[in-house]
Amino acid sequence: MSKVKKQNRKRFKAFRKNNGWIGIIFLALAYLGMVIIVFAFTDIMSQYVLNAKVVAEVERVAEIVEIYNNSEMAPEEALELLGPNGESYVITDSRGGVIYEHGENTLSHKLLAVKEAYGIKYRLYADSKEDYIFLNDDHELEIDPRKVADNLSSGELLVNDMTFREFSLTDESEYLPEDIESTLDIDTAKMINFPIWVAIGINNNSQRFVAKCYVSYNLRDMFLAGGFAMVVLLGAGILFIVLVVNFVISIHRQHNTMKLFFTDIITREKNWMWFLYKGEPLVKKKYKNTYAVVNLVFVKYRTFCVCHSVDEGELMLRRVYNLIEASIGKKELISHCTPSHFALLLNADDKQELDNRLKVLINRLKSIDEEHDFNFQIGVDFIEVKKNDKGKITRRRFVDLTAEYNNACAARSSLEDTEASGIAYFDDELVQEQKWKDLVQENQRQALEKEEFVVYYQPKYNPRTKKLTGAEALIRWDSPVLGFIPPGRFIPIFEANGFIKEIDHYMVSHVARDQKRWKDMGFDIVPVSVNISRAHFIEDDLAEQIRDMVDAAGADRKYIEIELTESAFFDDKKALIKTITTLKEYGFMVSMDDFGAGYSSLNSLKDMPLDVLKIDADFFRGDQSDDRGKKVITETINLARSLEMLTVAEGVEDAEQVELLAGLECDMIQGYFFDEPMPGDQYEIRMELGESIDKEELKKYEEERMKKAEQASQTEGESK
Ligand code: C2E
Ligand code: CA
Ligand code: CA
Description:
With 720 residues, the protein is α/β, with parallel strands linked by helices.
């Protein structure tokens, strides 16, 4: 695969993969995960803080118990002393019965936990009035946030600002960002005290000393964990929103990029890239269907633009696009590739039906505009279903739409000879043709250098006297790689690729060289005509080129004739007349080849000062009994004579035709009746004879000549 193709595939893959919604879902999940983590963390933090505070209270109560145990005073006195701030204590028996109480007894019988810390065994009881602390499902102490919130709003919660307790977390003010403090709208310097009762055994655990303790939260402490969580969540929330917005923007951008990438600038519709992007996966997915890749061409689009305007042309392209789009199915594609080219991907399960569809499409497109009659050419390449050894349809692993489309284009280009609408299918024959073309072009240059092109000569005879009056030089390619090839198989290729000019030069110079050699050898030479391709005629110094080549070979100009094919007369008439005139001035004869084939060129005869008229072989094909044909031949010869031109009848194969032409006083006949094209050495025999003789006699003559030649070479060898 080419580098560019690979890059395109990569790009397509990125477009397919980059689905923004997946990204957003991923983000949302990440956010959710974070919320869970933050909550869990907050939970652990707050439990840790609560526990630490409770333990600090336990330590304090343990100290009081120690003082109480060691005191000599009566319990009442000792407790009076211990509770100057009106703190509450209760001494109970082991079953909870109150033995003594000091301060307000709000001890409830709800046992929260039995625990031990620093070797001190203690029990925790809830407060009957302010029951904020409870034991959660995990048997961990927790402050009930709902109750706190309720009581905070009703003002019932004990809030005081006087206390600094040794165990409380610090009240430094940098704990929370100020904005959070203000949003909480609570005076954070104050303390919130959650009452809890701590019981420690006294008098050998026969009694319990139960003290009302306050788990004291600086308001800042209290909102620390929650605030932290909120900050984190808020931050994450903002980040989430930013990312979502970013995602949406990037999806939007990507959408725009894709649109730009896949939009054709002329029709504002789908382009070739889109065709590849959508087409390849479609064909792979629908592997049970046969598909047709279609190249549809608006013939003479450029001419239309020149005659009207590019804007009108583009408008027409849009209409063409829309019409095609309206006539294709959902699982079929159309795209606009280059100004006059459209690529289609059509279902082709029924090939006959596809053919009908395409014909209908062409007809509808032809009449797309009332004022114009357009032509459209279509090339089709099939993507057949793939089958395994057992005949079961299998998936298509690789689809190269570019290659398939190229085949469709190649098929369509076989229609290029005409401008008419048509449909061509890519098949084996076309492949062979293309391969042949390629092979010919690959070998052409080397063939020229190695002189693989051979000149054959086909004699022309006077039909009445049977005298040799001329010959035509015809090329053959004797290739060690490709074999012996007639001109019909390579001349059109050379005409198309321009190499024909070099072939023409080659032929002129080789014929001139032969003519010179034969003259020097004493042969009675006759004029030999050489074909010059019409592609060559646009060169304005053609006459000079020919003159120089002939002169360089030392040949006599009057024995070289130049044949122009009739179609050449359609080109620049003025230039053509000039070349013909100049050639004649230089002493060459000029003939019109294939007269009557294809287009009528009577008009050309009027202006062109030609010497010879070659009547096309087609006149001598088909039904010969037809009088009309004879009349046309007769009048053509008469016309040529009246214009003082010589006539050559080409492709004459039977005696009757020869007789007819003799009667009409046609000057020369070039046809299989007399001779087929032949190599130079055989042509030499024709010159030697100077006239056409019976085939049997000719054979004898040739044999004798060969014997003589052998003897001559033998005596030559002996004398040496
Ligand atoms: P063309 O110039 O019309 O040449 C006449 C063709 O008709 C020759 O085919 C010749 O062999 C064939 N022919 C002659 N008499 C008869 C006959 O009685 N019956 C039949 N069936 N055919 C006959 P060839 O040699 O195959 O050449 C084909 C064409 O190739 C030529 O048509 C000419 O257009 C082109 N060509 C050949 N040699 C050259 C060349 O050197 N230069 C250029 N530019 N074109 C050439
Ligand atoms: Ca010819
Ligand atoms: Ca001819």
